[in-house]
Amino acid sequence: xxxxxxxxxxxxxxxxxxxxxxxxxxxxxxxxxxxxxxxxxxxxxxxxxxxxxxxxxxxxxxxxxxxxxxxxxxxxxxxxxxxxxxxxxxxxxxxxxxxxxxxxxxxxxxxxxxxxxxxxxxxxxxxxxxxxxxxxxxxxxxxxxxxxxxxxxxxxxxxxxxxxxxxxxxxxxxxxxxxxxxxxxxxxxxxxxxxxxxxxxxxxxxxxxxxxxxxxxxxxxxxxxxxxxxxxxxxxxxxxxxxxxxxxxxxxxxxxxxxxxxxxxxxxxxxxxxxxxxxxxxxxxxxxxxxxxxxxxx
Length: 298
What we know:
Shape: elongated
Largest sheet: none
């Protein structure tokens, strides 16, 4: 049965490839729609081949139509397919066409359109088109498919990586004003963005806020704060956070140990650095031992 399905998918992919080679994209689109009606799925490689053929035609409207048909006809598209679509807009600056596509998709595949928009925004950011990703996000606010927590987390990450910290903080406030509840990803993204520009007091403010909201900090949260305060010379705060992390039952990673040891050495606290180095080695040894016992008892 599996071999039969695989052969069918391969045959469909071959036909899509032939249509594309013949520059008969309308035929390829009709085939995609027919397969959808018959509940037959296409391979990701066939999706990508169709989009690449549309790009070769230098027709952004045709590309949007092909992508729209794929989104409607297929249950799920591979992340590489979203990336190919986004990359087509690197040289093409037809923003009105892009925003029209966003509006049409929002209506066409609602309520799953928010998930699709999130993936499109991420793909545009991945290929360096930050402004277009933000335009799509702004457009979403006026559509039926409103931004959700994942959308906002993606935007916070984009702005944080670009160093646009004030915009990141404004969007975080907008997120809460929209009635959405920030999660651990939201706060970790904020703290990571703030630490990059040295706004350590703000890092602590949001750290306390997440704790007040009963969102438990994780290893990523503590790693960012421990390293930030260590590098800034506030080794006491770094040590306090390290001990607090262990007290909460979060096992320090080797990465965290190395960051702490490095910062201690820079501050001339060599005895403490040696003590934590020994603790790290003991931790590695214990982990290896427990892994060995687990494998032995299988």
